[in-house]
Design goal:
The chain is an alpha+beta fold and 743 residues long. It is 32% helix and 18% strand. The protein has a domain at 575-608 and 615-743.
Amino acid sequence: MSQLTLFDDDGIQTNPVLSHKNLIRPALLKDLPFDKIYEVSRKEASRKKPIFFIHKYFARRTTCNFRLMLLSLLLPEKTNVWDHFYDPGTINKNDDVTIFDPFMGGGTTIFESARIGAKVIGNDLQPLSKLVTSAEIMPAPVEKIKKEVDRLDKAIGVKIKNYYTTCCPHCNKDADVMYNFHVNQARSKVNKEIIELYSSFVLSEKKGVLTLFCPECSEVFKSDSKNKVHCCSHCNHTMANPREGFVNRGKYKNPVTGEEDFIRNYKDGETYPFKTKIIAQEYNCSHCGQHDYKKVDLNDIDLNNQASEELAKLRDTLPIPLQLIPHGYNTKQMINHGYLKFQEMFTDRQLLCLGLLLKEIDMVEDDDVKFWLLVAFSASLEMNNKFCRYQYNAWKISNIFFNHAYVPLTMPVENNVWGSKLGTGTFIKSVNKLIKGKEFNENIYDIFINSKGESDKKYSTDKVNMRLGESFAELDKNTAFLSTGDSRRLDFLPDNSVDIVLTDPPYGSNVMYSELIDFFHVWLHQTNIGKNFGFTDPLSPKLDEIIVNPVRKQTYDDYSNGLKEVFKECSRITKKEGYLIFTFHDSKLESWFSVIDAIARSNYKLIAAYPIHSESRTGAHTSSKESIAFDIFLICIKDVCNEQEVSNELIESIKNEAFFNTDKIIKRLENINAEITIPDIENFFISQFFVSMFSNHVILSSALKEHLSITIKSIDNLIQSEKVVSKRTGWWSALYNPKHSKI
């Protein structure tokens, strides 16, 4: 079946056209089909599109929701937007639409805006945002990259790979080490002897068979998962529950001596958290085809020691981060565990191999190729550090940011830095993901749900390949303008130059972006090209970050004032008929009050609010608890709110209208069996309350705040829904057991 398009082959309009003229009466004013896009967004959240796999960015939203919003803005009012969601096509070449994202982040708005042929402008405080977004929209010299990777392999790859070899126990030939399993060591407070902080003795579980590590003789052996007792095949040591180690919920307990204390109290600057012992390996042998787990032999230990000795000799010549870990909301946990420098988050072998690789990349002569190799290197960092765990029943490594946090582990897993045939998160796999992402830009698809209820791909003729301009003057449909800085100061953008501001701002205290971004920033700062790209300071920018961070004493007032200043600048640069649209959710009313106050004080009016499925449902910070599954799209136009006197009758009217609209939203979501939690319903109601408030020309007063606070406390009794769930679900929930992943 041929693909529908917004234009026929002769360029004659056959369907509603994307145009800035439709901003006066867009389809959005009629409806946003959030129920239609719900399952599509869930599927995309579980498996992001290839271009967004090229590098980690935090709290990145699904592209389908932003595409839906753009189409709803640029198609005429009477259009059924969902009928045209999968239609390829761009804005008419004689029609200009300029879209700006003041919190560019992971580049979702920029990519989707570029896809429909808009002029795109992005700004973000973080240099990493510009690096990642640039990589998402620019074309890559793939053949040159492959050629340079081959050269790197000969120059340094062979040396790195030699540090990740072992003797295959089946054919006695060299095999690739995919992962080294470590256990942290500490000094006993009872007898000062070295103790080992095992949280589990299970290496893997596959088809009812456990691969176990014996703490008595260091043997690796197999056992049926149904066995009530698991006996070591070498020393006959028995374990009733090998998933139970000596560490549980941050506490160590010695089963023999009874010694017990919190893990963080074992830090001594010498052993914990720095000293680890390799206990097992996952290997793949290219000679005999064997892929399994094995015990560590003397050669493996010697190879690890050689890496430490080599690092000691070369440390001062390698671009290894020297920065201290700054005290912050996300960093305080690892600081409490004794981590003081970012380099301490890596094993000696990782520091050596990453340093050697980055040094070689920074000497590449072609700056274009160097940029792409730097992106791949940076992307590989999230799975090459001591904060990576092993998913024993998924048989793969999990990245450091499985949560939006730094979680110290007592049993970290060391990846193969360069990479082997199997495994994930290595430098080579990161290069391959980058190339696959660039292929996606030439063969863009959207997720759709087929007649069997399964996700499938619908390909489009749209393409994304943009140049980067240095200023607003260079902006056109093929040249994006991406900048780094504080969006409270947008002097480089003219008045009335933007049609749509579409963004995903920080959500109060939900994510401490700069503290997490430091993990990548400290490495990129070490390079020449990194500094050319904005990584000039040793740590990521924090002073101007618009968030709520109690550790850095950034309050809700600071947050509201920051958003207000950004929105005021957006109002200045936005045309009269333009829109400010952004996503938001929060469980704290203080955050909502801050956002609404910022809207009102920047000459905007909230005219509509629609729920859309939130970020990835696969992370531990969003799943397996009564968390928020939906963002709210807040639709604002330029308008000055004329204050009306607030009466009890008016407050009741606002509340009743909000209840009515919330009930309609819930019914639409119930009809598609959507996953809704009580916090979701609270956010639905809050957003509708504020829409009604603005439509009644009322500003946010103390009386309104108090009334809303009282109502929210009993929302679950006031709004009835039989399909409210107590927790969110995701593919990972059956694989991830917090007891075995955290100390």
